Structure formats: structure tokens, C-alpha cells
Amino acid sequence: RMPFPSTRKCLEEFDLDKDGKLSHAELGSCLFEVLSRGGCPSPKRTSALMLEEWALRSEGLAAGEGALDRLLRAAKGYCAEEKSTRKRTHSEAEE
């Protein structure tokens, strides 16, 4: 499990056309990889939900550095919440 990368590192890795923004496809790849590397229990589901929410809010616009930073913070929060829920559910099942 790796720590969540910085916004700049994500832009460097996933901004394939180097325009300083992540397109819908680039953002989807970024969120999935970040959540997977961060040990999120369900990275595919969580990244899909986040991507859908972004698409609705942005009306299809690419994500710039500020938006990506907020999305990465949200991803980290979702991941921590999922881990906590799974631990709690697992402990309750053992009781």
C-alpha cells in the first residue's frame, strides 16, 4: 500500500496530453490508480462514483489542478471511511 500522491505527481503521471488538466478518461485512470495504490477496499466502485459526480458537477469539463486536489482529498477520505466500515463490519461479524 502506497501513500496518496500529490496533485502534481498525479498530473505528471496521468495528464497524457500535457495540457495541465485531466480529461474524463485521464481522471478516471488517475482516481482508480490512486485508490488502488492507497489500499482502498473497492477502488473500481469508488472511482466510478467519484468520476460520475465530477462529470455531473463539471458538465464534462476537464479537471484542473485545484479540482484534482479536492478530488484527491475526497478520495483519501472515501478510502479511510471504507476501511473503517469494513473493519467495523468484520469485528461485528466476529462477535
What's the gist of this structure?
By secondary structure, this protein is mostly helical.
Describe, in plain words, how this protein is organized in 3D.
With 95 residues, this protein is mainly α. The protein has helices at 7-14, 24-37, 43-58, 65-94. It is globular and about 45 Å long. The mean pLDDT is 89.
- Major beta sheet summary: none
Rounded radius of gyration (Å): 14 Å
SSE sequence, one letter per element: HHHH
Average predicted confidence as pLDDT: 89
Give the overall silhouette: globular
SSE class? mainly alpha
Distance between the termini: 28 Å
The count of helical stretches stands at 4
Number of strands: 0
DSSP strand (E) fraction?
Answer: under 5%
Low-confidence stretches: none
Fraction in helix: over 70%
List key phrases describing it.
4 helices, globular, 95 residues, single chain
SSE topology:
Layout: H1 7-14, H2 24-37, H3 43-58, H4 65-94
Helix pairs in contact: 2-3, 2-4, 3-4
